[in-house]
Queue: 4 jobs
Job 1
Amino acid sequence: MPNKIKRNKRGNVRMRRRKRSFDSVKDLLAGNTPALQRLSEQAARQELWRAWLAVHLPPEACAHVSGVVERHDTLVIFTSSAAWSARVRFAVAEIEAALKRAHPAIAEVDVRVLPG
């Protein structure tokens, strides 16, 4: 009986991919990978919003913001608990006009709970 042909084995040289070596995470994020570029852009936008909210929200409310995401024309602010969600919602209602003046692309602000 003849030997079986080896196909798609891990040791097959033809199937190996060439590995890139990166010096740092910054080099990895600066690469041309679309998913990583999108993630780094989202992280930069989140830091921009966190800085803006830190200036305009009360410090105790800002301490309980667990995330900020800009989705199309909606700014979604995540808080650590339902109680802080209500407090942040009222604080955002007071500064919503200033937020829309500073960022005209934002039409709506939504506050949600995301324990972090």
Job 2
Amino acid sequence: MANHKSAEKRNRQSQARRARNRMNKSRMKSAIRDVNEMVTAGSQENAPEILRKAVSVIAKTASKGTIHKKNASRRISRLTKKVNAMMAATTAEA
């Protein structure tokens, strides 16, 4: 346990940051899960809208410093690729 005043403050700050980062990361993971569910369901009408919202959440998480900007870019790229492949596959079937 911290004994100095500055160490106690640092501990409080770390706990606050951890809570904020967990909240942001959880929101991001939920958005990613929603997109993946739309892709597995093959929902063409909802997937682009859900993807747009997920991209916004991921970019916001990166801008707050919770994840690295290249990590966010990679996640966005992979989700977009999945949605585009699903859209192409369902239009090719029809």
Job 3
Amino acid sequence: MQIIRLYHAGLNLMPTHDAARWNARYRADNEHLDGMRTSFERPRPFLVENSPYLPASGLALDAAMGLGGNAGFLIERGLRVAGVDISDLAVRCAKARLPSLQAVIADLTCFSLPPAAFDLIVNFYYLQRDLWPQYIRALKPGGVLIFETLTQEMMTLRPDIEPVYLLAPGELRKAFAELEIIVYREGWVNPHGKHPRAVASLVARKP
């Protein structure tokens, strides 16, 4: 089972505290690694809803992929998928379930994307603003970006969340204004459920 572990200048790209924190979270949610069949393994509803905009073929990047719910959905639709995550536990579980996945263990804060390499980039519930220009450069002409993450409105429900990890109103749309924005929304998803989230969601295409 081939898994790519990235290094740079002889240094591991994965801060141990972040990797350990996410590994602990996955372990806490699952008593047995072989039984990891959780919501993390299902594709995000916004991705499924907007599947008509997915390319029919090509290479997709799943940034901060977790256990590979989105990656599995994309592979089923005929795409080749490179999935990147800081949690070695999550990457190994995703790879075991999805043998064709190009699985990468890496810290995205130290990650550099090749230009014009991807037909699709998906980013769910991960906010690293300095990646956004890389996403634009890394898309091929006609490539699609699907992005969803939390907004500052979440602080009305979770005041403990660090504001740096939350989008300001209109921030996501402005960040990708040079792309053709196909779908954009801000608001609450699952507002009456167990885990309501205030999010901004975007589907955009590179001209």
Job 4
Amino acid sequence: MHDDMTTVLTVRGQTSVPARFRKEAHLQPGQRLRWYRAAPNEFRVVVETPETAAGPLAALGYAEKFHPQGVPTTEQAMRVLREGEDS
């Protein structure tokens, strides 16, 4: 027998996690869920724990989005920040 675990998407793009799943996974308000596309009409939801949450290395490559000509070195960035200090 298949339980009906259907939820509805709101106009703001929000939905509910069925109570049975919340209880089984011990989910709490404010807890993060990470979504992945598994197939065109199928998604996978992973409960983030301290072990699965993005760590400091997740930021690697982020600066490249804002510096297509190349990420400045620390020395170059500090030179820009210090411009005008002696004035």
